[in-house]
Predict the 3D structure of the following.
Amino acid sequence: MIVADRQHVVSSFTVIKGAMIPETYDVLARWDFDADKKANLDRLRDENFIGASSSNWLRDVGKVLNRRLDPAGRDRPLAVLAEGNLPLDEWKPILLWHITRDEFLFRDFLVNWLFDAYQRGLYRIHPVDLHEYLMSLSKRGGQTEHDWSPTTLERVATGLLKMAADFGLLAGGTVKEFARFHLPERSFTYLVRAILEHEDGSPQRMLASAEWRMYLMREDDVVNELLRLHQFKALEFEQAGSLVQLTLPHASPLAFAEELVA
């Protein structure tokens, strides 16, 4: 089970190990909902059905998935989508949403550092550019389990940039630049439902939610995409000043996921 009070724990381990996108997809695509998490991860270790290149990497995949995700509960839609073979480019943005529910550091980096750099038009990003930000995590409620050495600090900065690149937000080698990122339509629709639920069902708060910053989207970007989908009758959306009306075709992220891969 995911420990609820880890929401504010700053984990260098998961960031240094990376996004693990294909590994996570493969594990969740074969998740047995009739068995508990331990049994599923034990089967991963015993069978190595993801083709891990070493026992150490296989062990790390299990540790990271155990910490990040709860496929039987909160993250069940993500597993349903992987099991239903949703294309990886559509699944990745949804994975990003799910892993940042319990991974303070990566979410905080995307929302409070990378989005600001994007807004400022920062062109080239080096790992050292993140050092000052990483030293200030406690000011936003981050709880570091132990002090980081200079080497760990650099590895975490490099890991954050690599994870952002793995999700398509950045591009390049050691020095990163912003990539041309656009949410696939079905991924966006899923996120609208998920963020609406996160914001207690308030369409106004959903539009203005800081969660969209993880996808380098401003409020007007969200509005424009909703208007486009409204034109295509994929949902109903109207905005007049501060009044927002939004009707989605599915009652929950899980219902949307189940229909998407039916």
